[in-house]
Design a protein that fits this description.
Chain A is built from 4 helices and 5 strands. Chain B is built from 11 helices and 2 strands; from the N terminus they run H-H-H-H-H-H-H-H-E-H-E-H-H. At the A-B interface, helix 1 of A face helix 4 of B.
């Protein structure tokens, strides 16, 4: 009895060791490539958001962290990528969260040029209803492009709402909550740049995400 | 062909038939429903998850068959779980490194292959009592059967819900596959139910019903031919 327990225990331990070794070896050989992949992905996403002639720095490398729960949507520090041409700042790409989506938070990446106009908005992640709310994705519809070129005129700016609420942005048939949340999220990013520009210059640099 | 070769090829044919039709993991064993229903919103996603599952299934069948003589009966389940979890983690890492777009598209469901009961089911029912190559072949056929059902289900739901087929295939197969996309009709919101979770249940139900209907037809025909010499076997296991 005791003998078989030890025997099985030892075998189980050996299998655990073997499996862990397998995972460790795979991790060792893929680690660098995985890091490279997400870096490449980030560079590509950021590159699409601002016109190429506007900046000449590496966007993914010039990143600061900002924590502003009421405008960025949650308690966590969010990355802000700063575009520069030579020494002048030409634009910001801000990662934020629109917390009031139909099925939880919608993660956004908003590019704004220094004249306060939106260059482009990209939805990074969401859980909205397929077929209804997911039209905020660029691959599903061009709705998200209706932000391009818009800016905040006055405070508050009543045009920053969906058409149903008297604003200038369309909503989708059967889904008002999703576009409402995105409009609010993007508007908050513009407010942030108006009200907290000073903090951006003092924000700490991004840490490597593990 | 010698006797043993004949027997071996018969065995292979039987394994293929079991995996693809008679004992199909999704339609007959009804295993692995969580990914089956959740990921099949489009043909591309379905194909991606199907191939990943098939790869894990082949690897795990092979590995478990290789160690089957060293694993005492009492600790076989924890050993299988460890092997499967390790393999899924490896597949996940490799996909993350080399198939980044697909990895992004399938998200959490790669990790959830661990919990797909088809895999531990085949380990218990087949791999632990058969030689490695047969187990590998069983993994391939079961995986193929699973992938085909996923593909049909995903294709059906995509056509009904969005009016397209193989949209986004370039994420899975590379840039050339962008031309694979077929636009059947342009739908503003399509038949939404097909894409939502209830649509998955309904579509899978219809596919199972059709399979059973075909089986019933076939067995009636064999019955007539064999004239009650032998009863047709409807299911196994």
């Amino acid at each position: 009895m005791f003998h078989s327990m030890t025997k099985n225990g030892v075998r189980l331990a050996l299998f655990a060791l073997g499996c862990t070794a397998l995972v460790a070896v795979t991790d060792h050989f893929t680690r660098e490539r995985i890091a490279g992949q997400s870096q490449k992905q980030l560079q590509q996403t950021l590159g699409e958001l601002l016109p190429a002639q506007l900046y000449d720095n590496d966007l993914s490398a010039s990143c600061v962290q900002l924590r502003l729960p009421e405008l960025l949507g949650d308690d966590l520090p969010h990355p802000v990528y700063i575009a520069r041409k030579g020494e002048t700042v030409t634009g910001y790409i801000i990662e934020s969260v629109a917390p009031q989506g139909y099925s939880g938070a919608i993660r956004l990446l908003t590019a704004v040029t220094t004249d306060g106009k939106i260059s482009r908005v990209q939805v990074l992640a969401h859980r909205e209803t397929p077929g209804l709310g997911d039209k905020i994705e660029r691959s599903k519809s061009n709705w998200i492009d209706s932000f391009t070129g818009q800016a905040l005129m006055g405070d508050p700016d009543p045009r920053w709402a969906v058409r149903k609420d008297g604003g200038m942005f369309d909503s989708f048939t059967g889904a008002t909550i999703t576009p409402r949340a995105v409009v609010k999220g993007v508007q908050n990013v513009l407010l942030l740049l108006q009200q907290h520009a000073q903090e951006l210059t003092q924000a700490p640099a991004c840490q490597e995400t593990p | 062909m010698s006797d043993s070769e004949l027997k071996a090829s018969g065995q292979l044919a039987d394994i293929a038939k079991q995996g693809l039709w008679k004992n199909n993991p999704a339609l007959v064993q009804i295993l692995g429903l969580c990914p089956t229903l959740a990921v099949t919103t489009s043909a591309t996603n379905a194909l991606g998850l199907g191939v990943a599952t098939a790869a894990v299934l082949m690897l795990s069948n092979l590995a478990i068959s290789l160690v089957r003589n060293w694993v005492p009966n009492e600790i076989r389940i924890p050993v299988y779980v460890m092997i499967i979890a390790a393999l899924v983690t490896c597949v996940q890492l490799v996909m993350n490194a080399y198939l980044y777009d697909l990895y992004q598209a399938l998200g959490i469901f790669i990790a959830l292959i661990v919990t797909n009961c088809v895999i531990i089911g085949r380990a218990e029912a087949f791999a632990n009592r058969n030689p490695p190559l047969l187990a590998l072949f069983d993994g391939l056929m079961m995986g193929l059967g699973f992938t085909l059902v996923l593909l049909v289900l995903g294709g059906l739901r995509e056509i009904l819900g969005q009016g397209t087929l193989f949209a986004g295939a370039e994420q899975l197969l590379g840039p050339w596959a962008a031309g694979l996309k077929i636009e059947l009709f342009t739908a503003d919101s399509g038949f939404l139910l097909a894409i939502l979770p209830p649509g998955a249940f309904l579509a899978l139900g219809f596919i199972i019903a059709i399979k059973n209907l075909i089986d019933a037809r076939l067995s009636r025909r064999t019955l007539r031919v064999k004239a009650q010499v032998e009863r047709a076997r409807m299911t196994t296991l």
